């Protein structure tokens, strides 16, 4: 064993362990938050992470919160499924035909570029204040990234691959299944991740705007009651949910795109 | 090679890109006729844009002639004929998401080859081109030469009578190209395939071909056909013989003025491809 630890050794040690640096930054942020909440900020606005964590069970025990989580989760799942299915179908239809690409892509980009929040009241008007309006608003946010990435994924395929497959006798279905589909999978997964973020945004925005149930209802309530412990607890649960979902899609993306990185 | 046994018959074929009156209207090929014998290797050589690849694609059914007919096995070609014709393209046409052996098997699946045979045939074809140890690699992990070997294996595994090769070594460096050419000559002499091979390289044409068809500048048509009377497989030493040089010089003479004409066209009309 070499006893002397030089600065250089430390540098090499750190460079090989990027995750350690990441961990340190996260820990530092938490410490800062803890210190701020304990000594500098009025406790009706901020609560230290240690208390948020230890009182997570209180959040769950608050009447209606488990049910609200279930409702929000269900809304997210439905909105995401609808976005993926419709987004994929529309994306393929628009991406695979030059005519429909020319005709409809500008409309899609226009809608994608419009901040849907401006028409949120209309969604409430048409779909009511129940889960339907949340799902619909979630879809309106999630569907466009999926369409756009699917179109891009289908479009940038090398023509020679299609020609080669055709020359070997591939049917239309085989072309789709073995050439177009594997080609677009990586961009489709990026689209799904963007779509998921969009759905989360849409559903929660709609819940915050007007609702009688769901997580948005409780975040509004906790904020108005100056209960930052529960508010931050609820937000942590949401964040954990979002990170977990995102990670699942990201893993799948890496797995299906492994031929690219070689 | 039994003479008179025609595998591919090209009759008065013309091809135009675009409609007359369009800015991009181009006659790529003009009234070309050609009989390709069963079992021969025919090279198509000519200036850029003279329609060699166009002709190849029409033989393979990837492109329909504007006028005239192409017959394969005395039946008119109306679309791809995967059971009779296999292609090797210039560009890397391997599916990047499939390993080398999956690429070969996918080709057979498209063609409709019996599932039970696919694995075996794929392995044999890959062994034949010298890629036995690279079957599980992805195309991105291979060199350009190895990729073209894999593409050749995919075409061979389809066990077609006709093989169409569109500048298969065009994107490779001179040395890789030479070795691949030698290996190809050995490989093909053991089969009785009919092969049409588009190339830009005079040496490659003389080294590989039974006959070389020289194209004129656009609108392309066949200017002359030269026979290369040398048994297969060609020995690497063939390249250094007097006969090789003479044939190469003859081709050069035929080709040179056409290339000049083609260049003059491009200078006047701007690049077309």
Characterise this structure.
- The complex is a heterodimer of chains A (262) and B (273).
- Chain A is an all-alpha fold and 262 residues long.
- Chain A is 82% helix and 0% strand.
- In chain A, helix 8 packs antiparallel against helix 10 and helix 10 runs antiparallel to helix 12.
- Chain B is α/β, with parallel strands linked by helices and 273 residues long.
- Chain B has a domain of 189 residues: P-loop containing nucleotide triphosphate hydrolases (Rossmann fold, 3-Layer(aba) Sandwich).
- Chain B has a 6-stranded mixed sheet with strand order 6-7-8-3-9-10, with helices on both faces.
- The longest helix of chain B has 28 residues.
- The radius of gyration of chain B is 19 Å and the shape is globular.
- At the A-B interface, helix 9 and helix 10 of A face strand 6 and helix 2 of B.
Write the layout of secondary structure elements.
The complex is a heterodimer of chains A (262) and B (273).
Chain A: H1 7-15, H2 18-40, H3 49-54, H4 56-61, H5 65-96, H6 98-113, H7 120-127, H8 131-155, H9 159-167, H10 172-209, H11 214-224, H12 228-256, H13 258-261
Helix pairs in contact in A: 5-6, 5-8, 5-10, 5-11, 6-8, 7-8, 8-10, 10-11, 10-12, 11-12
Chain B: E1 6-17, E2 26-37, E3 41-45, H1 52-59, E4 67-72, E5 75-76, E6 85-88, H2 100-111, H3 115-128, H4 144-157, E7 162-166, H5 174-189, E8 194-199, H6 202-208, E9 211-215, E10 222-227, H7 242-269
Parallel strand pairs in B: 3-8, 3-9, 6-7, 7-8
Antiparallel strand pairs in B: 1-2, 1-4, 4-5, 9-10
């Amino acid at each position: 064993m070499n006893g002397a630890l030089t600065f250089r050794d430390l540098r090499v040690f750190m460079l090989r362990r990027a995750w350690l640096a990441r961990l340190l930054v996260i820990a530092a942020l938490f410490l800062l938050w803890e210190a701020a909440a304990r000594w500098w900020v009025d406790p009706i606005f901020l609560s230290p992470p240690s208390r948020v964590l230890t009182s997570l069970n209180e959040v769950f025990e608050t009447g209606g919160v488990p049910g609200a989580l279930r409702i929000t989760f269900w809304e997210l799942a439905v909105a995401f499924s609808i976005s993926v299915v419709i987004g994929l179908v529309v994306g393929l239809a628009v991406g695979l035909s030059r005519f429909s690409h020319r005709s409809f892509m500008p409309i899609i980009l226009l809608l994608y570029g419009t901040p849907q929040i401006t028409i949120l009241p209309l969604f409430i008007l048409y779909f009511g204040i129940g889960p339907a309006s949340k799902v619909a608003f979630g879809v309106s946010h999630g569907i466009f990234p999926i369409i756009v990435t699917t179109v891009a994924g289908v479009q940038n395929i090398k023509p020679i691959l299609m020609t080669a497959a055709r020359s070997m006798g591939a049917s239309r279905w085989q072309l789709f299944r073995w050439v177009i589909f594997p080609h677009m999978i990586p961009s489709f997964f990026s689209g799904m991740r963007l779509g998921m973020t969009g759905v989360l945004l849409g559903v929660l925005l709609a819940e915050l705007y007007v609702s009688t149930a769901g997580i948005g209802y409780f975040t509004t309530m906790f904020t108005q009651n100056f209960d930052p412990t529960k508010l931050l607890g609820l937000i942590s649960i949401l964040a954990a949910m979002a990170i977990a979902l995102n990670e699942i899609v990201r893993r799948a993306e890496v797995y299906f795109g492994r031929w690219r990185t070689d | 090679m039994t003479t008179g046994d025609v595998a591919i018959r090209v009759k008065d074929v013309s091809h135009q890109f675009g409609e007359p009156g369009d800015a991009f209207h181009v006659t790529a090929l003009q009234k070309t006729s050609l009989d390709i014998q069963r079992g021969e290797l025919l090279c198509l050589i000519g200036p850029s844009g003279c329609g060699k690849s166009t002709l190849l694609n029409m033989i393979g059914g990837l492109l329909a002639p504007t006028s005239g007919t192409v017959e394969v096995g005395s039946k008119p070609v109306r679309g791809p004929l995967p059971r009779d014709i296999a292609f090797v393209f210039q560009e890397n046409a391997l599916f990047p998401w499939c390993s080398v052996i999956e690429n070969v098997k996918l080709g057979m699946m498209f063609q409709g080859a019996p599932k039970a045979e696919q694995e075996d045939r794929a392995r044999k074809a890959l062994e034949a081109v010298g890629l036995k140890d690279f079957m599980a690699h992805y195309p991105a992990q291979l060199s350009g030469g190895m990729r073209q070997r894999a593409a050749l294996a995919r075409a061979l595994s389809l066990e077609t009578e006709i093989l169409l090769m569109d500048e298969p070594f065009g994107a490779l460096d001179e040395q890789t190209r030479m070795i691949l050419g030698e290996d190809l000559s050995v490989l093909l002499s053991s089969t009785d395939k009919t092969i049409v091979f588009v190339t830009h390289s005079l040496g490659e044409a003389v080294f590989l071909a039974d006959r070389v068809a020289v194209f004129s500048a656009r609108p392309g048509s066949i200017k002359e056909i030269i026979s290369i009377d040398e048994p297969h497989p060609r020995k690497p030493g063939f390249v250094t013989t007097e006969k090789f040089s003479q044939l190469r010089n003859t081709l050069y003479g035929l080709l040179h003025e056409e290339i000049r004409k083609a260049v003059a066209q491009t200078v006047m009309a701007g690049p077309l491809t």
